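fyi for ur records
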Amino acid sequence: MIHLLPSGCEYVNIPKCGSQSIRAALGIKAGDKYSGTRKRHGRVSTLYFNGAKYVAIVRDPLKRFISCVSFLNRNYDTNYDYETWIAMDGRYPTRRMEHHLRPQIEFIQDPSKFHRIYDITEIGQFFTDHGLKPYHENKNTSPEMEMTPEIIEWVHSKYREDYEMLGEYFKT
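which gave:
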């Protein structure tokens, strides 16, 4: 999804990177239709650059993976550990699960086409820059699970392109 912001920029929604807060600030509730929203057609990575000023919020892939696992377990009533999610790579029970675990670069495609890419830690600045009133402060709801070196290595491998193309934006 792409949302038109009060600043005139178009926000490219990446799952688990502040999108719920942005939609809430725009007054979009789950299931609502919003006139400033348009869907992209085809693959997730199909963005048509039409001269618009695109902005996005990205997140360190490891932190995003932890948040995705927590979100998916909570919303799909599962209790899978990291290893189970890793073992399902590409074979998730629903397409929505796959959507949440896609690399961020698939949503962005080409960082040079973006007016600005923010790190999730800069969400307050994002709200200020784009004329949004903060909706709520996000609290970490990710349960503590053991993060083994093998899991970290898998995340770095799976999201290698995120680290390579977007690494300069992560404020870890």
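Residues 118 and 125 are 9 Å apart (CA to CA). thats all i got for now
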